[in-house]
UniProtKB/TrEMBL annotation:
Transmembrane segments: none annotated. The lineage of its organism: Bacteria, Pseudomonadati, Pseudomonadota, Gammaproteobacteria, Oceanospirillales. Residues 54-65, 74-85 have a biased composition (Basic and acidic residues). Residues 54-103 are annotated as: Disordered. This is FmdB family zinc ribbon protein. Residues 1-39 form the Putative regulatory protein FmdB zinc ribbon domain. InterPro entries: Regulatory_FmdB_Zinc_ribbon. It comes from the Bacteria. Coiled coil: none annotated.
């Protein structure tokens, strides 16, 4: 069972022997010779470009692993970080604050004990 696409009537399925898998088949409605197409499931068709590239890289690495020096690896990681930083700026703005670390409320008493101002006084620090 193969999928074919008629220019007028769209995709249809036709049973054909394996020897003729690449041969055009007549459309059942208009008898026009129609080329075979490969219909992808929506889950595969909607995969992000980065995810698809990573999957292809993993498949390739299974047979022929990529070998790189430490400097090449660090360069690639730096490029990834720069790309992520750019993507983040693009989505928000430079002053969005979502990437900043939360300031700790931790303080120390004169005796050196931990103290969390504004926190529950009955909580015991660990």
């Amino acid at each position: 069972m193969y999928d074919y696409k008629c220019p007028s009537h769209g995709v249809f399925q036709e049973l054909a022997p394996m020897q003729q898998h690449d041969q055009p088949q007549p459309c059942p409605q208009c008898n026009t010779r129609s080329a075979r197409v490969i219909v992808l499931p929506p889950a595969i068709a909607k995969v992000l470009k980065e995810t698809r590239e990573a999957m292809e890289r993993n498949d390739k690495a299974r047979e022929a692993p990529e070998v790189m020096s430490t400097s090449q690896y660090q360069e690639r990681e730096n490029e990834k970080k720069e790309r992520q930083r750019f993507d983040h700026r693009h989505q928000h703005g430079k002053d969005c604050g979502c990437g900043s670390k939360r300031k700790s409320n931790l303080m120390y008493t004169a005796k050196g004990d931990k103290m969390f101002p504004g926190m529950r006084p009955w909580m015991i620090s660990h």
